[in-house]
Amino acid sequence: TATPVTVTVTGAAGQIGYALLFRIASGQMLGPDTPVRLRLLEIPAGVRAAEGTAMELDDCAFPLLASIDVTDDVTAAFDGTNVGLLVGARPRTKGMERGDLLAANGGIFGPQGAAINAGAADDVRVLVVGNPANTNALIAAKHAPDVPASRFTAMTRLDHNRALSQLATRGGVPVGQVRNVTIWGNHSATQFPDIAHADVAGRPGAELAADAAWYLDEFVPTVAKRGAAIIEARGASSAASAANAAIEHVHDWVLGTPEGEWTSAAIMSDGSHYGVPEGIVSSFPVTSSGGEWEVVEGLEVSDLARERIDASVAELLEERDAVAGLGLV
Ligand code: NAI
């Protein structure tokens, strides 16, 4: 049998953690032939609850689950890690300034990046889910100078899936027949869900985008503000859909994207794609093969898209400058 892959999940006792761990252990993330060792990292107050989740994982008797460890020690959590899912983060609480939020998250993602640098496996791949995800990924990457920056990514797959679903509804087609939307920029309200190159069951996305009133006043805000709409309806933030997106991001990164199809992921910009400056973690249209994300080249960027991409990138640069000002990157 294959050697188990070590998967570390932070924030394991949280609501995304609860929706994520069972799917990892059942083989939905790394495939039916890959056993997994799970490492659950929590803060001390979350350890007991994570132990409860570990008991339930045992009770599923998943054949692929080789072991589970629960810890509040960041060094132990990332020792030998092949896949790191950084979910736990400091949420913004009432009265908290943006600087305080960035500083609090720097205190989490800096040490986690350093622990990954010190102890993770050579092939380590990291997905940051905890918000502000793009900038938290940047902080982690900066604390891991010996790990290629391309191994640190942030999640825009949920935004991507939301765009697919909204587009399917608009086109009146099954969601499985919609592909090649792109989320550009930051996982925030400034993100730009681009449908200009989408395939909506054979119909070009540009045709639907031509209805600017629908596209810009309905579709874009619906996708960008879907998180708030879920909180409003459910009384809690997106959890199962976020976990699903994390599963799909890692699945596609490791096992490859389907032929003729791209997805969206926030990756470290090297400055050579679509005018996005170097050194920020920004979302692009990407494919993966052989375990490496590659930006889809040659898509035409309209004036509208240019303006929206630049606005989201400007926000990422501001976040980067703010954490640089705090000495976090
Ligand atoms: P939650 O509050 O239910 O769980 C977070 C867990 O992280 C808690 O159990 C907490 O004890 C733990 N935690 C906090 N600091 C930690 C640390 N330093 N080390 C280890 N664990 C730590 O939150 P939920 O709903 O699971 O969401 C997690 C994060 O994911 C939030 O930041 C949320 O904003 C973000 N998110 C991102 C999405 C995306 O598309 N990128 C979508 C949905 C949520």
UniProtKB/TrEMBL annotation:
Substrate binds at R92, R98, N131, R162. Its EC number is 1.1.1.37. The keyword Oxidoreductase applies. It catalyses: (S)-malate + NAD(+) = oxaloacetate + NADH + H(+). It holds the Pfam family Ldh_1_N. Residues 6-146 form the Lactate/malate dehydrogenase N-terminal domain. Keywords: NAD, Oxidoreductase, Tricarboxylic acid cycle. Residues 156-321 form the Lactate/malate dehydrogenase C-terminal domain. Gene3D superfamilies: Lactate dehydrogenase/glycoside hydrolase, family 4, C-terminal, NAD(P)-binding Rossmann-like Domain. One of its GO terms (molecular function) is L-malate dehydrogenase (NAD+) activity. The active site is at H187 (proton acceptor). NAD(+) binds at G11, A12, A13, G14, Q15, I16, G17, N105, Q112, V129, G130, N131. SUPFAM superfamilies: LDH C-terminal domain-like, NAD(P)-binding Rossmann-fold domains. Belongs to the LDH/MDH superfamily. MDH type 2 family. NCBIfam families: MalateDH-SF1, PRK05442.1. Catalyzes the reversible oxidation of malate to oxaloacetate. This is Malate dehydrogenase. It comes from Flavimobilis rhizosphaerae. The gene is mdh.
